[in-house]
Each structure stands twice: as C-alpha cells, then as structure tokens.
C-alpha cells in the first residue's frame, strides 16, 4: 500500500481522518517487532481506519554517554517496512518540529515508578519518554496507541500517565517479538558481534528458566493439593518425573514462589558473566507491573520478570509476564 510521509504537525492536522486512528510510536530503524505492532494496529482499526507510525529519535530520553548520535536513522527503509505492514502514514518530524524553541521547560514527570529499575539506571529517561509520548499523542490525536511489551516499564508508565492525566486514548500492549534463537527484537541487536550475541542470549535464557521454574512449581502445587496424604503426595510428585520427590515436596512448600523464580533466572545470568565476552548485569527484578516494586513471597496476580544487562558496549533489556496464584505462567 502507499504510505504517506508527513514531516510537520500542519501536514498531520491537514490529513483527512477516516474511521478510528491508531498510532504506533517508534524511533525508527523498524524491524519485525515494529511491523507486528503496525499489523496489530491495522487489525484493531480495520480497513476503514487509519494507522499512523511516528518516527522520531527523541533526544530527551538519552542520557549523557548514551547512543543518541549513533542511533540508526533509516527513514527510507522504515517507510518500506511501515507500508508493507499496513501503515497509512509515517509522521517523521524534526526535533525543531517537536520541540520548537529548544528543549521544553515544562515536562511530564514519571514520578516514583520512573525512578526504579530502568529509571535508576538511566536517570531522567522516563521523564523524556513520557514528555514526547504526551506530545505525540496530542499531535496525532489517536483513538488507540500500541506499544510493545518488551519495554514493560515504559508501557506501564504510559498507561499510568494516560489514566492519571485523563488522556482520551486506549493503550494496547503487544507481546514481545523474538528472533528464532529467543533474543528479543531490538534495534540495538545490530551492534552485537557474533560472540556478543551468543552471550546476549542469556537474557532470554534467564527469563525462560524463571518462567519454566514457575510453571513447574505451580504444577507441583496443583498436584500436591489434590492428594492430602504425605505418602500420596510423594507418589504424585514422582509421577510428574521429579527425581527427588520428597525433597521437592518440601521445596514447594518452603522455597517456591517468587524467590525460586529469581534463583532459576540468576543461575543463567551468573553463568553468562563467566563467558567471553561476559554479560554485565544491571538488574534482575520480579515486580508488580502496577508500580514496578519487587513482589513478596505471598504475592498473587500478574507480575513481570525483567532483566537488563550490557554485552560489550550494548545495553539490552527483556522481560516475561508471569501469573502467581493460578496454575501455570503467562506466556
């Protein structure tokens, strides 16, 4: 399909609206993860609606020493990816267009949630993210905005801003898209050498180990609840293929839950720290997505297992959702 390139807010305002409008915000260098967001947006608004993709490398969210200058700018290729995925228009404004007169003196504050995890590692980052998201929501005036779940803390903060400040837009999270080897798709993956990429696979490997441990212990708990007698419980655990059923029955009762998930994930990360090149961990956290605080052992409900690390000069993040208190884990 033909995708229109829009450079100014005036061009965007002049565009006739048809049906519902969905916006997908990006910093360019579009890949299959972005294409998945665009296709999801097209499905939401239908053939009679409109999908607008924004391409803007936002200087406010880059801290000192971060990769603003080397962040890839590939607008021609981005137009092709957006068009193939179903976008009607790409809004690619200049910094002067988004921030007339220079950096804005009035900004959106991310509050306490924006100071945790990614916010602690990158002070002021989420203030910059929310400021540009607020501006782009005002400029594009969508009915629905879609964001990837790979940036889980960002998604949570955008949802909170939209709710707290009464933005009239629906926010939709789209599951993380992964490469065949499990690495979460990111524009920064292109910076990894072959050896660095092998090390980087520990991020998804750790998350999957935590998720698998959680699913296994939830299955053990469910099976154990079905049989009241201790001997019968051990037999049930044996039937599940546990090598040391009695020990595992005790572990399920005393050391399962969130801490077991953290331990399983950290074992993978500890191993990757000894590789060449090594993985340098920023954080591993198991948090409540409503405020991104660490969950306790008695937690029930939706949670996010999140990790951030550096491999060489490249910093990567990833996460998986989990559900505590019900059988199994969210996929």
UniProtKB/TrEMBL annotation:
Q: What InterPro entries does the record tag this protein with? A: Pantoate_ligase (IPR003721), Pantoate_ligase_C (IPR042176), Rossmann-like_a/b/a_fold (IPR014729)
Pathway assignment:
Cofactor biosynthesis; (R)-pantothenate biosynthesis; (R)-pantothenate from (R)-pantoate and beta-alanine: step 1/1
What are the recorded Gene Ontology BP terms?
pantothenate biosynthetic process
Residues at which beta-alanine binds: 61
GO cellular component term of the entry, any: cytosol
List residues binding ATP.
27-34, 148-151, 177, 185-188
Chain residues that bind (R)-pantoate: 61, 154
Write out the GO MF terms.
ATP binding; pantoate-beta-alanine ligase activity
Keywords, comma-separated and alphabetical: ATP-binding, Cytoplasm, Ligase, Nucleotide-binding, Pantothenate biosynthesis
Q: State where it is primarily located.
A: cytoplasm
Q: Which Pfam families match?
A: Pantoate_ligase
Localization per record: Cytoplasm
Q: Which reaction does it catalyse?
A: (R)-pantoate + beta-alanine + ATP = (R)-pantothenate + AMP + diphosphate + H(+)
Q: What is its EC number?
A: 6.3.2.1
What residues sit in the active site?
Answer: 34
Further notes on this entry?
The reaction proceeds by a bi uni uni bi ping pong mechanism.
Record's subunit section: Homodimer.
Q: Which family does it belong to?
A: Belongs to the pantothenate synthetase family.
Role, per record: Catalyzes the condensation of pantoate with beta-alanine in an ATP-dependent reaction via a pantoyl-adenylate intermediate.
Q: What is this protein called?
A: Pantothenate synthetase
List the source organism: Streptomyces prasinopilosus
């Amino acid at each position: 399909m033909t995708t229109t390139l829009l450079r100014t807010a005036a061009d965007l305002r002049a565009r006739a609206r048809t049906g519902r409008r969905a916006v997908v915000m990006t910093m360019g260098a579009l890949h299959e993860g972005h294409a998945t967001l665009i296709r999801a947006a097209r499905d939401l608004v239908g053939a009679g609606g409109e999908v607008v993709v924004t391409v803007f490398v936002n200087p406010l969210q880059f801290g000192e020493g971060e990769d603003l200058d080397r962040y890839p700018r590939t607008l021609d290729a981005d137009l092709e990816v957006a068009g193939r995925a179903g976008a009607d228009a790409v809004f690619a404004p200049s910094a002067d267009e988004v921030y007339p007169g220079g950096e804005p003196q009035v900004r959106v504050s991310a509050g306490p949630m924006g100071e945790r995890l990614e916010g602690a590692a990158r002070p002021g980052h989420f203030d910059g993210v929310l400021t540009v998201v607020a501006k782009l929501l005002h400029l594009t005036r969508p009915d629905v905005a879609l964001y990837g779940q790979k940036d889980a803390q960002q998604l949570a903060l955008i949802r909170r801003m939209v709710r707290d400040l009464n933005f009239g837009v629906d926010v939709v999270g789209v599951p993380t898209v992964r490469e065949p080897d499990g690495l979460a798709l990111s524009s920064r993956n292109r910076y990894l050498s072959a050896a660095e990429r092998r090390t980087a696979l520990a991020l998804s490997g750790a998350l999957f180990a935590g998720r698998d441990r959680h699913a296994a212990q939830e299955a053990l708990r469910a099976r154990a609840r079905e049989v009241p007698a201790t001997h019968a419980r051990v037999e049930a655990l044996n039937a599940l293929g546990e090598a040391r059923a009695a020990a595992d029955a005790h572990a399920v009762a005393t050391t399962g839950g969130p801490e077991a998930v953290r331990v399983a994930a950290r074992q993978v990360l500890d191993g990757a720290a000894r590789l060449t090149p090594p993985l340098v961990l920023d954080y591993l956290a198991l948090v409540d997505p409503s405020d991104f605080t660490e969950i306790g052992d008695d937690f029930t409900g939706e949670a996010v297992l999140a990790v951030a690390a550096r491999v060489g000069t490249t910093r990567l993040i990833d996460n998986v959702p989990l559900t505590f208190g019900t059988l199994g884990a969210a996929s």
